[in-house]
Write a structure and sequence with these properties.
- This protein is an alpha+beta fold.
- 29% of the residues lie in helices and 32% in strands.
- The protein has a 6-stranded antiparallel β-sheet. A 6-stranded antiparallel β-sheet has the order 14-13-10-7-16-17. Strands 2-1-3-4 form a 4-stranded parallel β-sheet, with helices on both faces.
Length: 332
């Protein structure tokens, strides 16, 4: 008896045609697939109607052995949502404005060929994924994945006030303009929140963030303890007080988290200074926040409208990543 020869493996590329150099990506993936002895790849563009979930589902249904995603943070989020729990590896080809997940993973931002080779290689690493259940004012509930951050309040307003044209011309720096537009009209709002099975808390805040990982562009450590592979979610409650409250928030996020924490001497300074109430950090596997009035929501930089409740949970090791051979994972 003769064995039926195994079919060659096949890659699928889900891409946002507005964000990427489609011609170059197609040619590169075809060439690398041929060199690796893989079948001709599948190419599945996103559309206005499909941010990537359906295209990814089609790729998995077709038997793709690995899925590559090329697009902005919203495209990565949509593809990851469709791939969570499938055990099919995902390779991220950085594109678009923020590349927040790629930055947190330390992936090469300017070398798409390296990530294509990683997709066709053998190094795989599981990471956590977040799920946000949103309750609307009419009681309707929907659940969506996020791979970096979910947010309620000011950060969602900042996303809404960021100019798409400015993002195209200057990249992630456009979010600074969005923040400048949002801060003058920002007002605190009352919430009730709970992390895991702890008691209920009430607070007046400007924003609540749920982090799967916590580094922003320019190396800003929004939530320094956040890990993408620890099975735990980090929550940041932003509550500046007094006329200089926002200076305290900025000092905490930029100077304390992103500069002082990186050196032993800096960490000693932070220990002696004590806690800063402008940003409160919490950790758990499940967190729920209910504002008094409907409040803006964002997931991985995309607007998700108003909600009267958000419940976020972490799904440990739910997403399998394809990484370059030898890529460091100890710090993830």
């Amino acid at each position: 008896m003769t064995k039926t020869p195994a079919l060659p493996r096949q890659a699928a590329l889900v891409f946002n045609p507005i964000k990427v150099d489609e011609k170059r990506l197609r040619a590169s993936l075809r060439a690398h697939s041929k060199d690796a002895g893989w079948a001709s790849p599948l190419f599945l563009p996103t559309t206005v109607e499909d941010a990537g979930q359906q295209a990814t589902g089609d790729a998995i249904a077709a038997g793709a052995d690995v899925v590559l995603v090329a697009g902005g943070d919203g495209t990565v989020r949509a593809v990851a949502e469709a791939m969570a729990g499938t055990d099919v590896p995902l390779a991220i080809v950085p594109s678009g404005t923020g590349n927040l997940l790629a930055r947190n993973l330390g992936l090469p931002l300017m070398d798409p060929d390296r990530m294509i080779r990683a997709a066709l290689g053998d190094f795989r690493f599981p990471i956590d994924i977040g799920w946000a259940e949103l309750t609307r004012e009419d009681g309707q509930k929907t659940e969506h994945a996020f791979v970096v951050l979910a947010g309620m309040g000011l950060d969602a307003d900042m996303i809404a006030n960021t100019s798409p044209d400015l993002k195209k011309s200057v990249g992630w720096v456009a979010y600074v303009d969005g923040a400048a537009r949002s801060l003058p009209s920002a007002k605190p709002f009352r919430i009730v929140y709970q992390v895991d099975d702890s008691r209920l808390h009430s607070a007046k805040v400007h924003s609540v963030l749920f982090a799967n990982c916590g580094t922003l562009p320019a190396g800003i450590a929004l939530i320094p303890s956040a890990s993408i592979a620890d099975g735990t979610m980090d929550v940041a409650v932003i509550q500046p007080t007094g006329p200089f409250g926002w200076l305290g928030v900025w000092r905490k996020i930029w100077w304390d988290n992103s500069v002082l924490r990186r050196t032993r001497a800096g960490r000693l300074v932070l220990q002696r200074r004590g806690k800063d109430a402008s940003v409160r950090y919490l950790r758990g596997k499940d967190a729920e926040v209910a504002p008094i009035t409907p409040t803006a929501i964002e997931l991985d930089g995309d607007e998700f409208g108003l909600a009267v409740r958000i419940r976020c949970r972490v799904a440990p090791s739910a997403l399998l990543l394809a990484l370059p051979d030898g890529h460091p994972t100890d710090g993830l």
